[in-house]
Each structure stands twice: as structure tokens, then as C-alpha cells.
Amino acid sequence: MSGLGTTLGPLELRSPLIAASGTVGSVVDFAAVGALENYGAAVAKSVAPVPWAGNTPPRIGSAGTGMLNAIGIQNPGIEAWGAEFGPLLAGLSVPVWGSAVGGSPDEFAVVARGLEDAGVSAIELNLSCPNIEGETMFALDPSAAAAVVGAVRGAVSLPIGAKLSPNSEDIVAAADAVVTAGADWLVLTNTAWGFGIDIATRRPTLTRGVGGYSGPPVKPLAMRCVWQVHQALPEVPVVGCGGVANAADVVEYLLAGASAVAIGTAHFSTPRVGATIRRDLERYLKRNRTTVAELSGGGIPW
Ligand SMILES: Cc1cc2nc3c(=O)[nH]c(=O)nc-3n(C[C@H](O)[C@H](O)[C@H](O)COP(=O)(O)O)c2cc1C
């Protein structure tokens, strides 16, 4: 893949495209319908220490050109996840990262250890899910987020990414805290809080009411986080995530300071979108005689 290679902390990626957690199932499920060979990594749906049933439907809905969801991280728990998917990961055409979620630093560490045992090649910490009943969003409290990263850092030897929220009061403080605690890179960002209501039924789009908003309308929200963090902490590797639908979006994130760029909601309408984005990105690189590494952080402040 000419010019597509990039570095994310300790990881060398063949492509800057990452399949975002929660939009490609366990990755194993997605292999037959997606175009995984175009990605540098694919992140499995977040997993908790024990099975979670998720929220009552409706738990997804459209909102303009974006999407609302409050799945509530339905997952089988780390033990069952590792038993079912672990043996299949090595046969996929892409490195698989696990995503850990939990209610405490110790719970995150338990899941991270299970993911490492299952054979994932890196671990993302979902510190920023906006729709779990009664749970804290760790990303909103820099010291709580740092405690999770510290516990996981002490429990596994794999590279770790910390996924933060666009709803953070101070995204640079959150970024600084998790990197100091041992995160190798940041994922900026998870979904933003959103809400919709049906004028015919007068019911909220989601049973939970407030959920996570994603898709093209959130791109400027996540881009703002990437830009501000890159300006403040230029050495910290960042995966840009939010609203990516085409190769131009990827180039924007790279220029703003990302080293890699995740694709999420676009998979639901176009599972093979990664193939189109990779092709168009390669054309862009060729036409402009540049590379992903050269574009990364290449935005010029006024
Ligand atoms: C239906 C759905 C489920 C998601 N589940 C997860 C999840 O389990 N863990 C996680 O870290 N992010 C999850 N996300 C967030 C995405 O990974 C991504 O951060 C977010 O949707 C923004 O990117 P996008 O606009 O390209 O979708 C989910 C998003 C959607 C739409």
C-alpha cells in the first residue's frame, strides 16, 4: 500500500484506516461483508468482565445525516468472548484490537488481561461510552481515566489506546492524564451525547432518551479535539474518529494531527467503505506526491 504506512506509538500500521469499535462486531463477524484488507487494524466491540444484555430497543435511530445509538455495550463477557473469537483472530486479514469496558479500574484490567490472552494485538480502553446505565464516563474525569489506564498498564504488556469523549470539559487535560498514566495513543473521539424525538409518537428516538450521536455531523466535534490535543501535545499519537465517510475526511484528520483515522457509522450503510476510502486516499497521495506520514500533523495554524 504505497504511502499509506503510519506509526501509532509502538505500532507500525500498513494503512491509516482503523475500523471503529462497535461498528464491525467482533471483527470475525464482519470479515465476510467488509473489506478488512484495507485497514491497518480493526477494533472489536467493547467487552466487559461479565455478560451485559444492553439496553431495550429501540436503541438505534437516524438523526438527520447522523445516527443515534444507546446499545449499552451488549456483549458476552470476556471469558465467552475469548473462547469464541480468540482462536479465529489469527486467520483474519487484519490485526484485531480488543476494546475493554468496565465499571472500575480493576474490571478494565480483568478484561484487558482476557483480551491479551485471546490474542488481540492491542487494546483500546473505552473510557467514553455515553449510554451505560448507572456507570461513570471515566473520560470526563481525568484522574479517574488515568486510574483505569494505570491499572491496565500494570496488567498487560500490549500497546494501549485510550478512547476519550467529545463531551470532556477539557480534552487536553484528559489527554495529558491518560498519556501520563501510560496510554500509548488516544482515540479522539467516541460518540457525542445526542437526543431525538418522533413528532408522530412523541416518543424519544431511543428508549434511553439520551444516546451517542455519530456520523458525518460529528466530524467537526472530533476534529476540534484532535486539533487542540495535537497543538498542546504534539508528540502524542492520535487516532481521529468521528464522521469519516470518504478519503477527504481522512486527509482532514491527518492534517489536524491524527496519525490514523477510524471509520465507524459509515460501515452500517456501506460495509465495504474501507475499500473505496483506501483507493481514493492512494489516488490523493499519488496526485499530491505525498504520504500519510507527511500529511500527519501537516495542518498550518494561521
Ligand atoms: C452502534 C454503535 C455502537 C458503538 N459501540 C461502541 C463500542 O462498543 N465501543 C466503543 O469504543 N465505541 C463504540 N461506538 C463508537 C464508535 O466506535 C465511534 O467512536 C463513533 O461512532 C464515532 O465515529 P463515527 O462517526 O465514524 O461512527 C459505537 C458507535 C455506534 C454507532
User: What is the CATH third-level topology name?
Assistant: TIM Barrel
CATH architecture type: Alpha-Beta Barrel
Q: Give helix % range.
A: 25-40%
**Sequence stretches where pLDDT stays below 50 over 5 or more residues:** none
Quickly name the level 1 CATH class: Alpha Beta
How much is the radius of gyration in Å? 18 Å
Within CATH, the superfamily carries the name Aldolase class I
Lateral arrangement of strands in the main beta sheet: 3-4-7-8-9-10-13-14
The small molecules bound here are:
flavin mononucleotide
Secondary-structure element pattern, one letter each:
EEEEEEHEHEHEHEEEHEHEHHH
- The gross shape turns out to be globular
Structural class: alpha/beta
For the record, the count of structural domains works out to: 1
Number of helices: 9
* Number of E strands: 14
Q: In angstroms, what separates the terminal alpha carbons?
A: 33 Å
Characterize the largest beta sheet: strand count, sense, and whether it forms a barrel.
Answer: 8 strands, parallel, barrel
Name the beta content range.
15-25%
Average pLDDT, rounded to a whole number, is: 97
Describe this structure in words.
This protein is an alpha/beta fold. It has a single domain (6-295), classed as TIM Barrel (Alpha-Beta Barrel), CATH 3.20.20.70. The protein is built from 9 helices and 14 strands. The protein has helices at 78-89, 105-118, 142-155, 171-180, 219-232, 247-256, 266-269, 273-287, 292-295; strands at residues 6-8, 11-13, 17-19, 41-43, 60-63, 66-69, 96-100, 122-126, 160-164, 185-188, 192-194, 211-214, 238-241, 260-263. The chain has an 8-stranded parallel barrel with strand order 3-4-7-8-9-10-13-14, surrounded by 5 helices. Strands 5-6-12-11 form a 4-stranded antiparallel sheet, with no helix packed on it. It binds flavin mononucleotide.
